[in-house]
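## tool: complex_structure
## caller: assistant
## args:
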Amino acid sequence: MIVVMKTGAPTDVIEELATEFEGWGLTPEKIVGTHKIVIGLVGDTASLDEARIQELSPFIEQVLRVEKPYKRASLEFHNGESTTVTVATPNGPVHFGRSHPLVVMAGPCSVENEAMIVATAKSVGASGAKLLRGGAYKPRTSPYSFQGHGESALELLEAARAASGLGIITEVMDTADIDRIAAVADILQVGARNMQNFALLKQVGQQSKPVMVKRGPSATIDEWLMAAEYVLAAGNPNVILCERGIRTFDSKYTRNTLDLSAVPVLQSLTHLPIVIDPSHGTGKSQFVPATSKAAVALNVDSLMIEVHPDPSKALSDGPQSLTFSAFSTLMDELEPVARIVGRDYA
Amino acid sequence: MIVVMKTGAPTDVIEELATEFEGWGLTPEKIVGTHKIVIGLVGDTASLDEARIQELSPFIEQVLRVEKPYKRASLEFHNGESTTVTVATPNGPVHFGRSHPLVVMAGPCSVENEAMIVATAKSVGASGAKLLRGGAYKPRTSPYSFQGHGESALELLEAARAASGLGIITEVMDTADIDRIAAVADILQVGARNMQNFALLKQVGQQSKPVMVKRGPSATIDEWLMAAEYVLAAGNPNVILCERGIRTFDSKYTRNTLDLSAVPVLQSLTHLPIVIDPSHGTGKSQFVPATSKAAVALNVDSLMIEVHPDPSKALSDGPQSLTFSAFSTLMDELEPVARIVGRDYA
Amino acid sequence: MIVVMKTGAPTDVIEELATEFEGWGLTPEKIVGTHKIVIGLVGDTASLDEARIQELSPFIEQVLRVEKPYKRASLEFHNGESTTVTVATPNGPVHFGRSHPLVVMAGPCSVENEAMIVATAKSVGASGAKLLRGGAYKPRTSPYSFQGHGESALELLEAARAASGLGIITEVMDTADIDRIAAVADILQVGARNMQNFALLKQVGQQSKPVMVKRGPSATIDEWLMAAEYVLAAGNPNVILCERGIRTFDSKYTRNTLDLSAVPVLQSLTHLPIVIDPSHGTGKSQFVPATSKAAVALNVDSLMIEVHPDPSKALSDGPQSLTFSAFSTLMDELEPVARIVGRDYA
Amino acid sequence: MIVVMKTGAPTDVIEELATEFEGWGLTPEKIVGTHKIVIGLVGDTASLDEARIQELSPFIEQVLRVEKPYKRASLEFHNGESTTVTVATPNGPVHFGRSHPLVVMAGPCSVENEAMIVATAKSVGASGAKLLRGGAYKPRTSPYSFQGHGESALELLEAARAASGLGIITEVMDTADIDRIAAVADILQVGARNMQNFALLKQVGQQSKPVMVKRGPSATIDEWLMAAEYVLAAGNPNVILCERGIRTFDSKYTRNTLDLSAVPVLQSLTHLPIVIDPSHGTGKSQFVPATSKAAVALNVDSLMIEVHPDPSKALSDGPQSLTFSAFSTLMDELEPVARIVGRDYA
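## result:
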């Protein structure tokens, strides 16, 4: 942490600050220049709050973090090695991580009825998917849109799990629902709109199922990693990160801007497994195959893809869903790309 | 709602769509052009989902909403008249609305201890504030930052309320805390990061205290009004909107970009009262007085301003907090501006 | 400038860097911490390029600028005092600056014909405007939109200048047109889309007419001040800054997001006069009066407002233009606000 | 084009509008609903300006473009077939387009001296690049940064062209320089900051060398295609589009956000060849290989990559430049990805 003093900051203020920092267990080191004085803080600064320091004196111009604000989520914390998150599914354990095959999760935006969810599970499983996605509780911009079937949809997911052997990933929106959902799901999903719902993050961190944290549409990489840090700090080491499109100035042709270049950035910063969701990221099924291939070429650990038996009749997100046969074709097309980057399918 | 068909859409697809829309209780009207066919949907389209329509056929190019997606929050719904939200405080009712005096809410970012919160309440009240703000539960980007004193802080707010006669506004972050907070607060605040926490919006809509919905840092005006619509649709008519800065490409000199021009836009769209929070909006106390005056010149209904007995020692958000005397000076400076736009203080 | 070394940077690399910096005439000062080494650069760092330093070694983690990248545009460079830019007009000198009355510039988006431009000049002059705006060369997104009447419009501006006594401000888009335009205009405008047309900035810096630099729709405050710095560095001290709306994620209800909060930020950073253009900033004439009042409450030095004899027939930007009578009313309404902040009209 | 009238628009206004549109050679068709009246405009609406229509009456609520604003740049204009842009180089013609091998352009940010540019040309040529990039005139944010060697650098590019047989692509920043640059360059580059320098676009459209239009950092897809339309409309059919990163809310770890998902979007909208520039897009050489592979997996037509003999000593953009050997390795790694999508190297 580097504390830049305003030009003309009095010497006694600087001394007082130095004493304060020593009281915090840090070693303050001064650089005295011709115009400016800067204080370098050496020690365990990872948990310090820049704003907290800024408040110490009106003579502080800027507080610059040199270290990363996250700790447990950082690659250094894990000695530079990637984490494997293992998910128990009826068909056996599925591993997410840099040294494992590509894991594909697929399924509809929302669980509509038993027939459709079971059929989808069987079909995507046959094509190579290892987990079934499907929303029971749905975050919708309008209170007048379909909100998901809630609790009853959880039973249908359970039926699909039994019928197909696939693991289940589904979204949790309210701390009050965690236990109910964790009883069925193999991975809990924290959705993009709840990425900074800190009450929720803390509580999914206190249960044992793996958690996938979707990036908020306007979350910086740091904020996203800090959201993961909330879960990790609460005691749950099994966190997966999912990029699903960010909000930019242009949303005419795509629902969001899929931030594919976040993949190599994350690979340089964190040990946590990384998922790309091209369906939400682009919002249009026609762009899903190309962006999926690009994600695999970036050596992502997993893809999450929306698949629906009949996208034109989907209760939500139909325009971004693939049909069974389009998904099956895509899986075939991804295989040679995965092989080039040294992966196989899970 | 206007449905634009792709060039070359077959006649029978268009007929099928028309039949489908009639089944939904709408009157479809076709415009047949030389290149394009467009279907206008007449009837109650406010609760329709564009995406739901798009899903009906791959021959649909675009679905354009002509009507606004929100209903209860719209000015038309209220016959063009503004709403007054009345808040009961020990000192008497406080009215938020276009035809009422400017209401100023003030206080610290977080409740730190009894002495500071009581002193702040008395001081801001003496300067003309009508409600005391103060966080018991704090949303913080880092799990290692001060998270608020929680339940015990609610008691301190209660003490400050009794000592000063001011009403209390404080944030609720978790559905599990609503009852506890509503027992103390006169207004419940839904914070920017929870603006699309739909579980929370639904439940604050089912209780009786007024609700202030802060705009998410990247929420469009429509998304923000839809968040208000969740509360209204759940049965609570007392909703107040608060702009607190949006996220843009530049955050070097201000924490957020305070979207002051949202005020006249909202005044043209909604009947709900509007608050500006220049403290979070700019993140720097030095910019609070000027932007407060601008907000009053825009004829905003209320201001929310951070005040702390000693900003340099604040546990959070010190750099954006005014001292007691700076707040008092600002209140004096706002008075003539308020008078020009035909307002007085509450 | 602060150079943060990567953990484990070898000592000899750090010594080499130190020697390099000394060769540049700087004094490098090291802070050696337990994990990190940081080099503070003392001396004339204003003209240094962060990227140039970063290139020096792969062991450099980050280069942090502590000083501002601009020099001549900074408030410090001017000893903390604001600049007055004086513009010679037929009616006498007009002064832009913090210690002068508010200057209003008004007129149509584009010069359409002699009658309209002369009538507009006379009308806005009668209402209190001191300069006439009017485009001869128009930047338009589409090559099929009206591009301005070009050279012939300059003659019409000259006629309007003679008839009304107002000064003229008009846009220059090409270095090849500078002389021709400077022969007629009293202020040259560099438009938002050309804010980083460096060839243009250099050349308007080499002629003697004052220059108004509009902020690019996605320009940071620093980039904008650097654009002004190009003009200043080329020798022209008479630079005026104009905020005209930035691009954000929401453009449904306004053409741009008028960044009113940039006014106090600029006042704290630069000595140059500041203009707000609420017409382009909001894109809708209905929002111009309120945002103009807010700008004046922020103590801006000048306003630029679009006025057209018949907005519904304007060849460009009609929806954001005021009628003569709306402009006259607005001028009356601005007066008491200007007086509150200690200004009068020019 | 669809014109949505405000609720309560008088019948005679609507009749007048209809007459006006007929006078423009369009066929207006009304849809009369219970609340709203909408006018569909049938005919040649591609060159119409929405704002121009909006201006016709205050009773117009919204003007919605159903057709695309660009014409010559659209896939439909070219009967759904992609364009091949052929560039004459000493080593023979190079073809950019969907049905041709991947073209790689490489070289330094700026031309520094003869030895470095000739060595780079030979090295990247040996690795498979077909064109040499190198800046003679450099757009720099600061007037104090290195601005390129200008005219003398053009001679060095000529020497490198002769020595290596590679074609030359270099940036033009000022209309006054076009002839001089076109005498040397095989492709003229319009840089990101000049994407809406309409004077420049018109003039590069009036000469015969192919033009590469880089996307402005905050340009929408439509604005970018309209910039290409300026060149096409001026008579030059050889336009290439280059994505080089957009500006978003996060620039901590990458200089820009490389918008890889723009590739499939453009492939669905335009017939023009598409280039990705991962060097500017990410700003860090470590992210160039992965994002290059992703671009090739998206079936892009060309890549533009910065290469420098000694990145740590580059006068500009060193941190994003590859060494000769890193470039050579990357070319080898791209080959199998290109083959999967059915391409080979040019």
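## assistant note: The radius of gyration of chain A is 23 Å. Chain A touches chain D at residues 218, 220-222, 246, 248-250, 252-254, 257-261, 263-265, 267-269, 281-282, 286-287, 290-291, 293-299, 336-337, 340-341 (CB under 8 Å). Handing back to user.
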